[in-house]
Protein: Cofactor assembly of complex C subunit B
Amino acid sequence: MAQINSNRVLRLLPLVVGGLGGVLLLVNRLETPQILDSQARSDALGVILSALLILTGLLWQQIQPIPPEAVELEGRQGFELKPDLPDPVKTELAWASLMLLTNTVTRSLLVVWDAQVLLRRGVLGVNSQVQPGPIVKRVLDTHKPVYLVNLALYPGRVEFDYLPPNTQGVICQPMGDRGVLILGANTPRSYTKQDEVWIEGIADKLADTLDRFGGSDDTKITT
Structure:
């Protein structure tokens, strides 16, 4: 938050200095009864410098847009694992979730496999059960991820009632054809392309582990 406020000040600084300089030049001209040639030249130079500062400030507003602000997600911190999982699966899920929470903007995540919630970690939503809605079903059907960059803008956000209510962004990453990794961020438009590639790699690794240790095919998520 302090970094964001500092960036705002730096972006506004040329506008403020340029505007203040222009106002002071105008006041000085009005308060001077007789204008000398040297003063006129100085005033012209001052006007040019003030205009350049204002133009620089306006360009900075366009070139360096204000980054979206993070929010404090509503909910309690927790780490829940399905108790009857094999130890290798528990270890893999614990490692993968820690990496995502500490190296990306993810603040809440779930792993759903064969219609069961295997893991919830981070800031937990009130609802502990996942009922696949249209977005998650589409991810399972197409095997393609969906990134909702600003969840508040999507009517379909109501299906994510198992995430904190003020979640800002969501990635639904398929894990083979049997599961989905659901990530919630506290900042909109915050996942980078590199993040998405990394999340895909972790999801594939989890899917491989669960295929080997996670049970039979008889309870696949129905879509």
Observations:
- Residues 215-223 have pLDDT under 50 and may be disordered.
- Helices lie at 2-31, 37-63, 87-103, 134-142, 193-213.
- Residues 2-31 form the longest helix (30 residues).
